[in-house]
């Protein structure tokens, strides 16, 4: 938290942060938790797609214009699939028979959501001190059952304004 705040203060100052500032905040971009959050808790567990051409995936013949349901939750939870997805994150063009010409649907979603998460996180760090209520200020990450994997113990954090709007 201290390193992130120091970077924001030195590059942006105490003015309001804009989304354009994220490109100049390498520490915010490097924070791994935003990537992990999207991998383990995608915005939607299943995404419908349509194949743009006939293809074969893992021995299964997929006809052109077939409706497919991609289980992003299973992909994010299976390390072998995640390594494949992240290894291609920096490529500018990835052929994809599932309806996306430039990048896969997963890559596009992750890039957009990651940018928004980084901007939101930077603004929250810039504008507030965060105090965690509960057991000695330690966050319990245990999960409960449910389709969106809710927390077993609620996170109660109290924002204290650092900047005057």
TrEMBL record:
Its cofactor is heme. The keyword Lipid biosynthesis does not apply. It is found in: Membrane. Pfam families: p450. Signal peptide: none annotated. Keywords: Heme, Iron, Membrane, Metal-binding, Monooxygenase, Oxidoreductase, Transmembrane, Transmembrane helix. InterPro entries: Cyt_P450 (IPR001128), Cyt_P450_sf (IPR036396). GO terms for molecular function: heme binding; iron ion binding; monooxygenase activity; oxidoreductase activity, acting on paired donors, with incorporation or reduction of molecular oxygen. It is a single-pass membrane protein. This is Cytochrome P.
């Amino acid at each position: 938290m201290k390193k992130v705040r120091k970077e924001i203060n030195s590059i942006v100052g105490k003015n309001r942060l804009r989304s354009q500032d994220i490109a100049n905040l390498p520490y915010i971009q490097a924070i791994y938790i935003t990537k992990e959050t999207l991998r383990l808790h995608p915005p939607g567990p299943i995404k419908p797609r349509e194949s743009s051409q006939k293809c074969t995936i893992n021995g299964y013949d997929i006809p052109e214009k077939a409706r497919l349901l991609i289980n992003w939750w299973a992909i994010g939870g299976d390390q072998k699939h995640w390594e494949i997805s992240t290894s291609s994150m920096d490529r500018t063009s990835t052929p994809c028979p599932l309806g996306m010409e430039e990048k896969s649907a997963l890559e596009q979603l992750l890039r957009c959501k990651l940018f928004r998460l980084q901007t939101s996180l930077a603004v929250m760090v810039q504008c507030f001190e965060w105090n965690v209520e509960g057991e000695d200020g330690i966050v319990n990450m245990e999960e409960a059952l449910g389709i969106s994997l809710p927390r077993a113990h609620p996170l109660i954090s109290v924002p204290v304004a650092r900047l005057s709007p």
